[in-house]
Amino acid sequence: xxxxxxxxxxxxxxxxxxxxxxxxxxxxxxxxxxxxxxxxxxxxxxxxxxxxxxxxxxxxxxxxxxxxxxxxxxxxxxxxxxxxxxxxxxxxxxxxxxxxxxxxxxxxxxxxxxxxxxxxxxxxxxxxxxxxxxxxxxxxxxxxxxxxxxxxxxxxxxxxxxxxxxxxxxxxxxxxxxxxxxxxx
Length: 185
Known about the structure:
The structure is a single chain. With 185 residues, the chain is of the alpha+beta class. The protein has 4 helices and 6 strands, in the order αββββαββαα. A 4-stranded antiparallel β-sheet has the order 3-4-6-5, covered by helices on one side. Strands 1-2 form a two-stranded antiparallel ribbon. The longest helix is centred in the last third of the chain and has 38 residues, at 107-144. It folds into 2 domains: 2-25 and 106-183, Orthogonal Bundle (Topoisomerase I, Chain A, domain 4); 34-101, Gyrase A, domain 2, CATH 3.30.1360.40.
């Protein structure tokens, strides 16, 4: 019973870290990543469709992304969707493809990215603490229903705390590494 609670708790905490890392892909670092366009959706015959499903999205160098639609009639839609996404650059439509030229990041922009990253990390830590609370509540419920003893309950809560500490340290390390990546010029 307790082992099931432990493994469920670990799985949830791992998902919190994975979610945080997915969120990091929307942050701008020193070099531009095509993932800054992940949240851009195009109205493709009435269906909101991710940009990478209506054309190729390629980072040609550290500051340029090229979007090459498979259907040229989508150029205007793609251009307006990128402009509406407010990613910090204006799309340049040359009639064949759309180019996005990202200026090199300033120190202020890097610090702003670090702030956003730390907020994402704090959200992940809150999620991990909520997972801990949920698991501890399950253990207390088992104790209340006399399915485990008070000593087993205490040992279970201690084990949950160790798991929580492990994931908190993981999050801190990921944040530290990401901060160094963002601030590196």
